[in-house]
């Protein structure tokens, strides 16, 4: 286990700190870093470590939704996270450098198959109840489409909510759509297409511009193929 | 029982207060030495005075009515109150005016380390002198202030507020589309700019390339050459402004403290021409900012006067000081 410089420590010298998302984006992120020549073999082991020295970079692993938090504060100079995370945290001041194209998912509104509760609630009750892990995205989407919605934030399996009557529908991130299908849900509307994004700290973008640009350019080439 | 205080405010204890006061004294001495006189304005202003200065910048955290039903607001910065002060108290006096201030301002931000809703600012306003000499003087005072704060590694980003707006106008992009692209630049959404610029119809491939490359250009004076190779009248105009400022800075011997940055755009609406941001490697947030606001004075009183200034966020400068001292201390231990 290696040590890492403190969160707001000087960044003029030393390795750039790079936030790697655990979870669905982890595999493709490691492959992409591997493709641009970053030493990632330690990342591929079952190590419980959170911090890895990898040549030019210090890799720090975390939940995708924490990446903007660390990057905004400068605790990580750069990082990779999903567009869904960035949409949900629009007030985080981070640079969004690059669409890495992998990890493609859809942010959707879904309802029960063959069930008209979404439409009926809107007609008769003036608003729909939406369960989601993305409350701000959901609120903004319904607002922008001129509809009223009661957004209910849940932390766990959001598919449960319409099945037991907590909500009329859900807003969630869908990859293959299998989880939806297994729970008798179907996509009704697409809100956005989401892919992995390279994000960066504002000060790192200014004070370590050459290194940041170089890394972004290599990642661009690796993901354009 | 614990009595809470409003979110985004805080109490300050003696140990911190002592250091903050020392910082304020050092800055005040520096400003005085450069010929700037201290002014103070009310913490509260009429709301319409603040919005006349900048519709968006007046996103103050606190608004309320007085006993006669007038809408008041806590000031969101010191620049607008000082513009009002100059227009009303010095209406017939001969410029230039050199003022500095140290005081609290209020903004509706998400509270976090170094960013509260009530925060301390210190800065200067130079009213009368035009670009580039006025801008260069303000930057010289800023460099001296950073040195007085012990932040010798701090870097000043220098950009141009009109550059991208004029560039878009020159290639025929206006209205909502232009605002959307500017908004994405202000929020540092480079992917969004790429999408929006990619979707523009009827513009030359060369212009598209310029729109995409320009916001990423930052560094020494070579940046101007790269930008001019990309071409275009707006680029030519803005970069010649930047170049003139940079030359004035070189003449004052402080050019190496400045990084030219063609992607810089500040969120306050009153800036025209040069804009500034202050970075220190010890902190992940900007320490302050400023620039020229040649049209702001004209919105108060009858006389338009060119002006420039900067503000430092004192709490952040203090955090950066502490971090720099820690880094320096560890460096010595390591020897």
The number of helical segments of chain A is: 10
CATH class of the largest domain in chain A: Alpha Beta
CATH architecture classification of the largest domain in chain A: 3-Layer(aba) Sandwich
Assembly type? heterodimer
CATH superfamily of the largest domain in chain B: Bira Bifunctional Protein, Domain 2
| Shape verdict of chain B | globular
Average pLDDT for all residues of chain A: 90
Rg of chain A: 20 Å
Count the E strands of chain B.
Answer: 12
Poorly predicted regions of chain A are 1-11
Q: Please state the second-level CATH architecture of the largest domain in chain B.
A: 2-Layer Sandwich
End-to-end gap of chain B:
50 Å
DSSP strand count of chain A: 11
Main beta-sheet annotation of chain A: 6 strands, mixed
Structural class of chain B: alpha+beta
Rg from alpha-carbon coordinates of chain B: 21 Å
Unreliable segments of 5+ consecutive residues of chain B: none
Number of domains of chain A: 2
Helix content of chain A: 25-40%
Q: Can you offer a commentary on this structure?
A:
The complex is a heterodimer of chains A (225) and B (335). Chain A has two domains: 16-104 and 195-224, D-Maltodextrin-Binding Protein, domain 2; 105-193, Periplasmic binding protein-like II (D-Maltodextrin-Binding Protein, domain 2, 3-Layer(aba) Sandwich). Chain A is 35% helix and 29% strand. Chain A has ten helices and eleven strands. Chain A has helices spanning 26-35, 41-44, 67-73, 83-88, 117-125, 135-144, 160-164, 178-182, 202-207, 209-224; strands spanning 16-21, 51-54, 57-62, 78-82, 95-99, 105-112, 128-132, 149-153, 169-174, 185-194, 196-200. Chain A has a six-stranded mixed sheet with strand order 2-3-1-4-11-5, sandwiched between helices. By secondary structure, chain B is of the alpha+beta class. Chain B has two domains: 1-154 and 282-335, BirA Bifunctional Protein, domain 2, CATH 3.30.930.10; 162-265, no CATH class. Chain B has helices at 14-33, 47-53, 79-89, 133-148, 163-170, 175-186, 190-198, 205-213, 222-230, 233-251, 314-334; strands spanning 37-38, 44-46, 63-65, 71-74, 97-106, 118-127, 155-160, 218-219, 258-261, 274-279, 288-292, 307-313. The N and C termini of chain B lie far apart (50 Å). The model of chain B has no long low-confidence stretch (mean pLDDT 91).
């Amino acid at each position: 286990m290696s040590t890492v410089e403190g969160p707001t420590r000087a960044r003029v010298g030393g390795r750039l700190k790079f936030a790697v998302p655990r979870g669905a984006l982890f595999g493709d992120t490691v492959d992409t870093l591997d493709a641009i020549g970053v030493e990632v073999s330690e990342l591929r082991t079952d190590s419980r470590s959170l911090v890895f020295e990898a040549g030019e970079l210090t890799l720090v692993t975390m939940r995708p939704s924490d990446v903007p938090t660390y990057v905004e504060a400068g605790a990580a100079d750069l990082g990779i996270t999903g567009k869904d995370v960035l949409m949900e945290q629009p007030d985080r001041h981070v640079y969004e450098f690059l669409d890495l194209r992998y990890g493609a998912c859809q942010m959707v509104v879904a309802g029960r198959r063959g069930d008209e509760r979404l439409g009926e609630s809107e007609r008769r009750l003036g608003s729909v109840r939406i369960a989601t892990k993305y409350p701000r995205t959901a609120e903004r989407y319904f607002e922008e489409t001129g509809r009223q919605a009661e957004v209910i934030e849940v932390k766990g399996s959001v598919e449960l909510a319409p099945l037991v009557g907590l909500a009329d529908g859900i807003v969630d991130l869908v990859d293959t759509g299998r989880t939806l299908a297994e729970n008798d849900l179907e996509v009704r509307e697409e809100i956005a297409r989401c892919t992995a994004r390279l994000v960066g700290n504002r000060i790192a973008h200014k004070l370590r511009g050459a290194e940041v640009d170089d890394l972004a350019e290599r990642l661009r080439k690796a993901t354009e193929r | 029982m614990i009595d809470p205080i409003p979110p985004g405010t805080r109490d300050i204890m003696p140990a911190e207060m002592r250091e903050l006061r020392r910082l304020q004294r050092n800055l005040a001495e520096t400003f005085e030495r450069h010929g700037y006189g201290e002014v103070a304005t009310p913490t509260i202003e009429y709301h319409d005075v603040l919005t006349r200065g900048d519709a968006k910048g007046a996103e103050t955290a606190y608004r309320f009515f007085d006993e006669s039903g007038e809408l008041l607001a806590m000031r969101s910065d010191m620049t607008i109150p000082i513009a009002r002060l100059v227009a009303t108290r010095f209406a017939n006096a001969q410029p230039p005016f050199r003022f500095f201030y140290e005081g609290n301002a209020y903004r509706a931000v998400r509270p976090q380390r170094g960013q509260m809703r009530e925060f301390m600012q210190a800065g200067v306003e130079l009213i009368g002198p035009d670009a580039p000499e006025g801008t260069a003087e303000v930057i010289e005072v800023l460099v001296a202030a950073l040195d007085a704060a012990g932040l010798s590694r701090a870097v000043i980003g220098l950009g141009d507020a009109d550059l991208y707006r004029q560039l878009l106008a020159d290639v025929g992009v206006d209205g909502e589309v232009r605002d959307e692209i500017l908004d994405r630049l202000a929020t540092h959404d480079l992917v969004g700019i790429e999408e929006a610029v990619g979707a523009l119809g009827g513009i030359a491939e060369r212009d598209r390339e310029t729109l995409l490359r320009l916001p990423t250009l930052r560094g020494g004076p070579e940046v101007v050459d790269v930008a001019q190779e990309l071409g275009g009248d707006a680029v030519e105009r803005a970069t010649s402004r930047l170049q003139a400022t940079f030359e004035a800075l070189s003449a004052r011997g402080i050019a190496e403290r400045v990084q030219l940055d063609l992607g810089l755009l500040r969120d306050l609406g009153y800036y025209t021409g040069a804009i500034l941001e202050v970075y220190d490697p010890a902190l992940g947030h900007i320490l302050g900012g400023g620039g020229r606001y040649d049209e702001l004075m004209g919105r108060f009183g009858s006389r338009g006067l060119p002006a420039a200034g900067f503000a430092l966020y004192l709490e952040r400068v203090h955090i950066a000081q502490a971090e720099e001292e820690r880094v320096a201390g560890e460096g010595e231990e390591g020897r």
